[in-house]
Amino acid sequence: MELEQTLAKHFGYTAFRPGQKEVIGAILEGKDVLALLPTGMGKSLCYQLPGYILQKPVLIVSPLLSLMQDQVEELKRIGEKRVVALNSFLTVSEKRYVLHFLEQFRFIFTSPEMLLQQQVQDKLSQMQLGLIVVDEAHCISQWGFDFRPDYLRIGQWFSQVNRPPVLALSATATNKVVNEIRDTLSLHTPFEFLYNVDRPNIHLGRVIFEDRADKVHWIIQHIKETAGPGILYMSSRKRAEQYSEALIQAGIRAAAYHAGYGAEDRQFTQQQFIDGELDWIVATNAFGMGINKSDIRQIVHETMPANVENYMQEIGRAGRDGQPALAILLYCDGDEELAKFVVTGDLPTSGHVDRYQELLNQQVQPSQMLKNGELSETAFRVLDYWLQQETMEQVKVRLNHLALEKYRAVDEMQKITQTKDCIRTQLVGYFGQKLLKKPENCCENCGIHYDEINKVRLKEEKKIEMIPWKSRLKQLLMGF
């Protein structure tokens, strides 16, 4: 059957988007593939369509529970029943059931941590998979080395099994990150499709303040006057909650979202946003990866992100429907110091390395550091992983190198924040690419007519009270 016929039969589309057919063709030829496709270009179709042709299970390794659940629900909406998320949401009995019948599913989503559990690996080793997908593969570089060490272990597992072709997917990656993905996953002479990272329908605004306090007034006023849906990115959980409360008081349908909330609460908030019950999400960078909402019109950064990759990922959540969208970056002198403080806050120190060894010498589990509140869970994951791989001195050198790399990344972001040249050209150039064409209303430095992009916000007749999802569910069930 021609690929276009399969596309129409299962997904209702008559034509492929750029890159999709090339990537799918390479997979069907049995090749490893590394694909860089911007948000909104239909990355998920690159493994979903082969799933209907290969007639063998497709394993998708995904970094976030919310992203995983969103993709599972999307497949169910188009009528796919043989899809499952093998993750921590499952009860013990549900997990046992899923593992027993795992080979009967067409699409199997899981996390790096779940993938590396022995019982999961034992089951997968007995199966014939058609394809393994590593979604958001840039996490291997950005998160793997200091946030999600289990992303690094995926490649180790690959080398131990008779694996099918591997598809590594990402929206943004520098040449350095592309090389790291290729090496870490041990891809065999992969077919590579690296699409231009530019999103011409996203217009790049920037506002520079002399006083950080002036940002608060500007943000509240801007959101009150202009239409969403939108995401307001913050540097901390506390500020996300403060701004969310301020917006709600101003009559905006808004909610805070960060990793401090429970998984169910985060998923419920995300679903409210997708369904149009919320107009603005006030979030840390924990929100938005892979979110399936096409009509996000605005992204506002209250302060500069820690690196250019994060910035491109976050603004890429806007305008997935191809319609004009606006990304506004707010900057005040000193924001770069805040960014450096935030990005190194979760890195363990040389002192933590010594403390880890001290506990081992006392025959105490090093996880006691976590229980004592001596460091964060993220920092402990980093420390524990690398101290199992290298000597104490090597780990100290590595941690120092990681901190310097993070500082350099902030400096690169600051250059783009303060440039007097075309911001879009600078962003695209950071990824080793060239800007093909400047759109109208390109960026702040080239000139933007904001009124041509932003629509005026229509005030709500009724202010919606934001209450926890469990309370709302209880009220609905009681028929209040």
Automatic annotation (TrEMBL):
| Residue ranges of every copy of the Helicase C-terminal domain listed in the record | 218-375
Extract the GO molecular function terms from the UniProt entry. helicase activity
The record's listing under CDD domains reads:
DEXHc_RecQ
For this protein, the record's InterPro entries field holds: DEAD/DEAH_box_helicase_dom (IPR011545), DNA/RNA_helicase_DEAH_CS (IPR002464), DNA_helicase_ATP-dep_RecQ (IPR004589), Helicase_ATP-bd (IPR014001), Helicase_C-like (IPR001650), P-loop_NTPase (IPR027417), RecQ_Zn-bd (IPR032284)
Establish whether keyword DNA damage is in the entry: no
Is this entry keyworded RNA-binding? no
Q: Which domain of life is it from?
A: Bacteria
SMART domains named among the record's database cross-references: DEXDc, HELICc
Q: Which UniProt keywords apply?
A: ATP-binding, DNA-binding, Helicase, Hydrolase, Nucleotide-binding
Output the PANTHER family linked to this UniProt entry: ATP-DEPENDENT DNA HELICASE RECS-RELATED (PTHR13710:SF84), DNA HELICASE RECQ FAMILY MEMBER (PTHR13710)
* Record protein name field: ATP-dependent DNA helicase RecQ
